[in-house]
Amino acid sequence: MLELKNVSKTFNAGTVNEKKALVDFSLTLNDGDFVTVIGGNGAGKSTMMNAIAGVWQVDSGQIIIDGADVTRLPEHKRAVFLGRVFQDPMTGTAATMGIEENLALAKRRGKKRTLRSGITKEERAEYRELLKILGLGLENRLTSKVGLLSGGQRQALTLLMATLKKPKLLLLDEHTAALDPKTAAKVLETTQLIVERDKLTTLMITHNMKDAITYGNRLIMLMDGHIILDISGEEKKKLTVEDLLHKFEAASGTEFTNDKAILG
Questions:
Q1: What pLDDT sits at residue 19?
Q2: Could you read off the pLDDT of 113-150 as tens digits, one per residue?
Q3: Angle CA 56–61–63, to nearest 5
Q4: Buried b (16+ CB within 10 A) or exposed e, 175-187
Q5: Which residues are CB-neighbours of 63 under 8 A, at least 6 positions away?
Q6: Domain boundaries in the chain?
Q7: 20, 48 in Cβ contact below 8 A?
Q8: What is the DSSP string of 71-118?
Q9: What gap in Å lies between CA 184 and CA 196, rounded to an integer?
Q10: What residues contact residue 93 under an 8 Å CB cut-off, 6+ apart?
Q11: Cβ(53)–Cβ(77) under 8 Å?
Q12: How confident is the model at residue 163 (pLDDT cuts 50, 70, 90)?
């Protein structure tokens, strides 16, 4: 479903601020894979995700989604393949519009605009059923402005919007990092429910080692623009945070010093 072939990206090339963010980077995700991504600051996690989404062009290499080479496609043309949820709960929704209006925008994504009436009774019933799985009572607040929701409620709604059209690839960019632990756990449970239900191929960046181990069928760790660990199957199921730290030290020759991840 996703292939990154020998992708490289350097920022500020030829200057004192030159940063090789991705170096001959290759990664393949099979259909239905749920891959968690961890790594210290500057490891290349966000650069990888932004390269897939087309936020910027890569210097070299290929990006292929479901057999289509999207390497040179601009961001807005790649959107048809992708669903994405960002770290900031304020991103991804229209604050001044109602819950049902936001869902309707997501449902109409990629379709031609018409002069037909806004939201049908059938759609409204569909949105109620979708919102019920969140367990947040939002199905009874369809007309409430999204700007009045809590960060967790808004992030859960963004997740629904990103997956409403069943994207080829779901990108989760530390989507629970800004939430309190209880709310983050709820959003992650919902994430797993939706991903498993719709068999979505998913790439999830997280700063939380425990979450990286708990969720998904595969875990990769990045360092200096490379994949240094790739763990799946039974090995991942038996993995502990301590095991992961030892594996990192063995693979990199250094200690993992991202305190935020360790505390997680």
A1: 92
A2: 554 557 888 889 999 998 998 888 899 999 999 999 99
A3: 65
A4: bbbbbeeebbebb
A5: 3, 4, 5, 7, 51, 52, 69, 70, 71
A6: 2-81+167-263
A7: no
A8: TT--HHHHTTTEEEE-SSTTTTS-TTSBHHHHHHHHHTTTSPP-SS-S
A9: 18
A10: 102, 146, 154, 157, 158, 161
A11: no
A12: very high
The encoded tokens of residue 204 equal 């999830």
Q: How far is CA 60 from CA 6, 25, 26, 69, 238, in A?
A: 7, 10, 12, 13, 37
Query: Rounded distance, CA 219 to CA 1, Å?
Result: 17
Could you give the CA distance from residue 71 to residue 52 in angstroms, rounded to a whole number? 8
Rounded to whole angstroms, how far apart are CA atoms 55 and 49?
9
Number of residues in the chain: 264
Q: How many CB atoms lie within 10 A of CB 131?
A: 22
- Give yes or no for a contact between 102 and 160, defined as CB atoms under 8 angstroms apart: no
Specify the pTM.
0.89
pLDDT of residue 111: 60
State yes or no: pLDDT of 112 exceeds 70. no
Distance in angstroms (rounded) separating the CA atoms of residues 106 and 46: 24
E strands present in the chain: 2-11, 19-29, 34-39, 60-65, 68-69, 82-85, 169-173, 202-205, 218-223, 226-232
Q: Under a CB-based contact definition with an 8 Å cutoff, are residues 224 and 43 in contact?
A: yes
Cβ atoms of residues 103 and 124 within 8 Å? no
Q: What tokens appear for 167 in the block? A: 């994207």
User: Domain 2-81+167-263 - what CATH class?
Assistant: alpha beta
